[in-house]
Amino acid sequence: MKRHLAALLLAACAPLCAAEQASTQPVKLTIDATRVTGPMTPIWAWFGYDEPNYTTAPNGKKLLGEIAELSPVPVYVRAHNLMTSGDGSYALKWGSTNMYSEDNQGKPVYDWTIVDGIFDTYIARGMKPLAQIGFMPEALSQRPQPYRHHWKPGTPYREIMTGWATPPNDYAKWGELIYQWVKHSVARYGQKEVESWYWEVWNEPDGLYLIAPDTEQAYFRMYDTAAAAVKRALPTARIGGPHTAVAGRFMDNFLAHCLHGTNYATGKTGTPLDFVAFHAKGAPKVVDGVVRMGMDAHFRHLDEGFALVEKYPALKGIPVIVGESDPEGCAACGMQTNPENAYRNGTLYASYTAASIAREYDLAARRGVNLIGAVNWSFEFEDQPWFAGFRDLATNGVDKPVLNVFRMLGKMRGDRVAVTGDQAYDAARIQAAGVRGARTDIDALAAKDAHHIAVMVWNYHDDDVIDAGSPVELRIAGIPAKQVQMHHYRIDQEHSNSYAAWKRMGSPANPTPAQVAELRKAGDLAELGPATTVGTRDGTATVRMQLPRQAVSLVTLTY
Predict the structure, then answer these.
(1) Distance of CA 448 to CAs 370, 452, 467, Å?
(2) Which residue ranges does the record assign to the Glycosyl hydrolases family 39 N-terminal catalytic domain (predicted)?
(3) pLDDT above 90: percentage of residues in the chain
(4) How far is the first Cα of the chain from the last one, in angstroms, to the nearest whole number?
């Protein structure tokens, strides 16, 4: 009887014991710096937001400066509402520049003051606009009233669909406005500078953002008119689209129109298309009280867009921009109204970002497309409570953990090199079923240049659970030096984490100046320890660490 009971207890313990045993064995990752897999294209150095007037707010300028500083290349910034009518005040999912109005005789009045202030802020920091031609000025709207919305989180999303969301009531005036804007930009910033920008038409015309009886044909006409105007002002300017919410029939028909359709503006066949852009989002939800991310949906949407580009041989090699690439779709929906968004303050957003950006290289390579950018649609929100769970990079001027992933990526340059591991998920597996079950995704992205190797390692799972994680062993081969200087940066509950620091303070609604200073320091990218000198053996360095669940490490070796 005792032997039988012991056997039952042993059987019940088996899964747990196996898990405990596995956790004591290091997860092994091998990096081969001699095997280049592709360029370390800075697809991550692209950011966007709905509210353009946050750009010139003090916290907006601070954050833009930090974003510019972390990147070794110019950062591209995409913002909505650059043509919207209004006084330049900001609100959730709203902004305006009032660049166009009409006098009593219906003649155009152009005012570049506010949009210049926005673009000046970018240019002063070495950043570049992904300049969005939208939305519709009130004087050109087909249904001007009501024009401004006053949406708040928790109210129906469709309430934002007011007069700014229509095609123009006069395509000639619409085209002339765009021509004058580009012409003014060249005069203000110089031809060479504006040639380095990207111009785009509208946002998600296949979704809520365009009100028309036939949205496809309305958008095609808007695009053709805008492209003709941009090229008339600057023939070497780059314009593209369609920035659809999903990569489906609308996008497919748009690509066919640009390649083979009749141009609404010129009557000729075809329309300029210098890059292709679409959006891809994940789908988090709450399962048994725990947030579960939807990276599988995110990857499927990415792959669908890449597949549509791959479908057309004429588009081989064309630059592709994922205009919004995020865990879900509403940056301004906080966790109070949308509890599935509770991931945004802590390390889950950071590990998700690291794991997803790394796989975007693989997804694009599988389809043979030229991915140059994946816009992270998150910035900052003014006049909001601390850590309210918006999808942002900073709260009240304090950087959140996710921003430190981009600081890590900014330290990676040159070429990507091969990584193999015994507990890594590949992109196809995540696309099929996400990262679920007992095993977490422990993997790495690695890059090298002439005297530097950088390895970013994460421990990711779709479920918002934190534990001690696993020991990890990195074998970094192909180092042409007998010793290297190693820095080890970390995002976890103790490092690079202002949210954890805020909670340790008792989650103050109004932190004191001293607490704000402490939070800002906690929001910086931190090292796990002092720099060390590591010897190599036959060109290989071994680095060991304990990597908690949801943590991200960056190991840099300089020689």
Answers:
(1) 21, 6, 31
(2) 97-524
(3) 94
(4) 65
Q: How far is CA 89 from CA 54, 97, 115, 141, 547, in A?
A: 9, 9, 13, 20, 44
Instruction: Give alpha helix (H) positions in 144-214.
Output: 171-189, 191-195
pLDDT tops 50 at residue 511: yes
Domain ranges of the chain: 17-37+412-558, 42-377
* CA nearest neighbour of 437 among 456, 458, 457, 465: 465
pTM of the model: 0.94
- Cα–Cα distance, 354 to 409 (Å, whole number): 9
CA–CA separation, 58 and 54 (whole Å): 8
What are 465's two structure tokens?
Answer: 């659970």
User: Model confidence over 485-494: pLDDT tens digits?
Assistant: 999 999 999 9
Backbone angles phi and psi of 395, in degrees to 5 = -125, 120
Does the pLDDT value for residue 12 go beyond 60?
A: no
pLDDT at 16 over 60: no
Measured distance CA(268)–CA(234) in Å, rounded: 20
Peptide bond just before 275 cis, omega within 30 deg? no
Which two three-digit tokens encode residue 554?
């960056």
Report the C-alpha gap between 249 and 255 in whole angstroms: 10
**CB-side exposure of 442: number of CA atoms within 13 Å?**
25
CATH topology of domain 42-377: TIM Barrel (3.20.20)
**CATH annotation of 17-37+412-558:** 2.60.40.1500
3-state secondary structure of 363: helix
Q: Is the pLDDT of residue 425 over 50?
A: yes
| Token representation of residue 30 | 């091998």
